[in-house]
Every structure is written in structure tokens, then in C-alpha cells.
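Annotated sample (chain length 310).
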Amino acid sequence: GKFRELRTAVDAVAAVDAHAHNLVDVDSSFPFLRCFSEAEGDALSRAPHPLLQGIDRSLRDIAALYNCRASLDELESHRKSSGLLSITAKCFEAANISAVLIDDGILFDKMCDLEWHKSFAPAVGRILRIEHLAETILNDVRIPHLLFSSILLPQKSVVADKIVAMKTIAAYRSGLQIDTEVSKGDAEKGLLADLNAGRPVRIKNKSFIDFLFICSLEVATSFDLPMQVHTGFGDKDLDLRQSNPLHLRKVLEDKRFSKSQIVLLHASYPFSKEASYLASVYSQIYLDFGLAVPKLSVQGMILPSKNSLN
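Output written by the structure step:
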């Protein structure tokens, strides 16, 4: 009835994947199961349990697309025998993707570059992960602290012509309680603390990260670029208590950012209610629902299927 009509209409609309990461080759060391779960080690090995309906449904959907049994072994075998080009073309066509925006600031084994993806989507854009850019600069220069300003103020041509959005992983490093009034002096002290911690440099000092975020958001706002913010759902490196999007209130109340576009990723799960509230009262907030399968109800996940997870 109406549900079928709605699904037909939705399936006919070309999708924009506004937050993706680079695909990897089928023989990459990146585990196939990590596409469905942020778990690691022993916890990851237990992820495909039938009670974890999100993974169950995903595996059944993929098996239906590949026309094979919904078992991990058979799916892995099919992927390797078909090859990356074949399965990528099949998945992109089935998903009806018109554009894909890629955050390439997280490095995987045997990952494909941005150009490679252009064979499968009409439009491919780059999302600049600001902490990764800062670390790349700091690890590449002889006297990195002298390039403090160049880290925080990217060249206009780079921002305007090379990227479609910025992204921050501050939630992973020091939390979302951003100090909008952090001083440059405190930020420089924080940067030196991270530099003195050894190589490769990994920025984690809150003052420096907050300053990096504020400066980057100013640049993004001036060029009418969105700032994607990782909140909530993530692996265990993230302190969930510090990733609640309600912590962003000082940023949202700051007049400098009244025209900003801030995208809360992954529906901020498990803070979806908080994120929805923010989107309803702040014009700057947009809510992304990618990778949000865990928040679906069980009834929403269980669909009739001839296949079952083995």
C-alpha cells in the first residue's frame, strides 16, 4: 500500500552520500565486518550474532544484491572472486548514488584515492579533516611550530577550489565542549606540548584543538562551506560522555558562527534526541543520518527475506 509507494518513490531519488571514506581493495587488512561495527578484537568477532539485528539486516541486504547466501564466508568469497571493480559498480548502481563526498583523512590499508572513485559516481568531492591536515603539516616540517598560522588559515584557493566541506574529530581527541574564547597563547602552549610528546605528532591538547576548530569554522563560514562534526557513534577511542552535541552550545551562541553550517554526523547516536532538538532550534545545525542503523527499531530492521544469517 502506501509504504510500498513511498519506498518506490524514495528508491527513484538519486542519493548523495555526504560523508564517506575511501574504499579499500578486497585483500586489504581492514576487516570486512568493520563496515558494520565499530567493535574491535574479540568484540568484533561476536558482532555478527543474530541478535544484533543491524548487522543481520545489512548482511541479508548485501547477500540479496550479490545473489548468494547471507553468511560471512560466502559474502567474503563472492567479493574476492568478483573483484573490487565489479562489486563497486554493482553497489553504486543499486544505491543510485549521484554524488559521494569523501573524508580521506583516515588511512586504511590498500585504500583507493579520490580519482579512482570518479569511475562510479557522477560527482566526487573531498572533505578536509582538519586535525589530519594539522598533523600532516606538523610531521612534514623541520620546525613545525613556526607554521602555526599556516595550519589554522588554509590558503583561500585550497579551501575554495579543492574541498566541499571540512570535518573535525575533536570529539575523539578532547571533546565537544569547545572553548570559543581560547587564546592563541594557550593554543601555542598546547601545540608545543603535543610536539614534545614525540613523533609522529598526534594532536590531543584541548586548547590547541579548540583553537584549530574555531579558526577552521571561521574559514568554512566565510566560504559558505559546511563543517561536519563527529558526534556520538564511534569506536572505543571516543569518550562518549564528551561527544554529546549539546556541548556545542557556546559555538552555536557565538555571533561569529550564526551563519555557519554545522553537520552533526551519524545522527549523533545515541544522542539522537539531543541532536534533533538542536536542529529544531538552531538554524546552523543539520543532521546527518549516515551510519545510523543501530538507532533503528527492531521492527524496522526485520524485513521478509528468504535468506537467513548462518
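Annotation: The first strand starts at residue 15 and ends at 20.
Annotation: Residues 206-222 form the longest helix (17 residues).
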